[in-house]
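Per your request, structure below.
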């Protein structure tokens, strides 16, 4: 079982300072992401609680649209920026990026999302104006990433190239979402959110998982190096790219033809079978007493399960003329399960390693991880058990808030203090 290094303080802990956020890109990006992650969790939990108590809340944007937009794009890009501007130059053998050079676009995005959040409840065009700032900031960061990849002389640039392509796709979708919000085109807005999720957010995680899971586990199991052939990468990304147009098309054309649903179900069933098989294989060669690796493994299991659930759901829709499905269970298995678990594991690993601490998950993080797993299970069961959906969804949101706010509070304090080993960064 992992044990964090215990440092006996010989002097009072240094004060938290904003200036330390500019010591490294991961500090700035992760802190902004942690703040937005905690804010989005508390906001949605409050909205669900108010609904359960029949308390009135003013909505200028449909709650489902606001939820999907904010929870999928509100905090993930900040974590992407923190990680990519820290690890990206190392992958590509480029010079380190100064956190100050990405401070302005991060600030634009933070301000933009605050305006968006206010606009959800005041006026949709206010939310649209906020999205313009977000899109502007993210586009600036994407341009910087693209230049870094282009200048690199490294032969193997498959992973960075796919990530930059996905990030640029996300920038395009943010601009479309901003225009749609300003012009009050809800279907276009919903389509942009779906395309951003399946072509941007999830592919970045998939590519990062393919690249980093073997790296994180190499010290414990060299056999894991053979786990990430390129065919697996293209399988994951290809299936995600297939899901994107189908998810967007479904908003405009219902019900989709049964033949198309059967084809979708077959592809998802194959992907789920392959990914779950690899997850089992990984568990057999890997020491899952290592908590960080167990967390990554749990996230990867959710990826396979989400495809399996999607296959069952779409097969039911094909059989029952779209009158029966698993609802939002596959989607939340993907977003809360795969994305949430993987984010918690990878952000913990990077924060610990670049903070001068042991690359391990201590008891506090381990508990937060299992609270997050409870949140995923509650939300999946809420979709599968409609009669208890209100209560289970509320409990899921509260558990998710405990996990995300707890992580943000714990690691947010680290980002504003110097490394405990005295090294720069």
């Amino acid at each position: 079982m992992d044990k964090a290094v215990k440092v006996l303080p010989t002097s009072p802990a240094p004060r938290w300072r904003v200036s330390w956020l500019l010591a490294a890109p991961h500090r700035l990006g992760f802190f902004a992401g942690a703040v937005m992650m905690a804010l989005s969790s508390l906001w949605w939990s409050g909205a669900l609680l108010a609904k359960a108590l029949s308390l009135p809340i003013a909505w200028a944007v449909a709650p489902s649209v606001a939820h999907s937009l904010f929870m999928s794009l509100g905090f993930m890009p900040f974590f992407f920026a923190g990680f990519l501007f820290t690890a990206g130059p190392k992958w590509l053998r480029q010079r380190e990026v100064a956190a100050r050079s990405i401070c302005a676009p991060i600030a634009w995005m933070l301000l933009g999302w605050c305006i968006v959040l206010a606009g959800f409840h005041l006026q949709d065009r206010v939310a649209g104006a906020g999205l313009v700032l977000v899109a502007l900031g993210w586009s600036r960061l994407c341009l910087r990433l693209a230049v870094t990849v282009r200048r690199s002389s490294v032969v193997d640039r498959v992973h960075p190239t796919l990530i930059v392509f996905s990030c640029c796709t996300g920038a395009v979708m943010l601009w479309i979402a901003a225009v749609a919000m300003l012009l009050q085109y809800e279907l276009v807005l919903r389509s942009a959110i779906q395309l951003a999720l399946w072509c941007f957010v999830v592919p970045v995680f998939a590519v990062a998982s393919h690249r980093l899971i073997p790296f994180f586990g190499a010290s414990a199991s060299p056999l894991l190096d053979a786990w990430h052939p390129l065919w697996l990468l293209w399988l994951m990304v290809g299936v995600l790219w297939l899901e994107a147009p189908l998810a967007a098309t479904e908003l405009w054309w219902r019900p989709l033809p049964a033949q198309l649903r059967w084809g979708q179900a077959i592809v998802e069933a194959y992907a789920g079978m392959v990914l779950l098989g690899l997850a089992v294989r990984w568990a057999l060669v890997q020491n899952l007493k290592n908590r960080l690796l167990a967390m990554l493994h749990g996230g990867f299991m959710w990826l396979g399960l989400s495809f399996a659930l999607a296959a069952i759901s779409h097969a039911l829709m094909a059989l029952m003329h779209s009158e029966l499905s698993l609802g939002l269970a596959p989607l939340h298995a993907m977003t809360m399960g795969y994305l949430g678990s993987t984010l918690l594991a990878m952000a913990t690993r990077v924060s610990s390693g670049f903070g001068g601490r042991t690359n391990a998950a201590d008891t506090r993080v381990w508990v937060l991880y299992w609270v997050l797993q409870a949140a995923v299970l509650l939300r999946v069961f809420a979709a599968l058990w409609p009669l208890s959906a209100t209560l289970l969804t509320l409990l899921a949101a509260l558990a998710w808030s405990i996990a995300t706010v707890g992580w943000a509070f714990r690691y947010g304090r680290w980002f504003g203090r110097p490394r405990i080993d005295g090294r720069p960064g």
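The mean pLDDT is 89.

Regards,
D.
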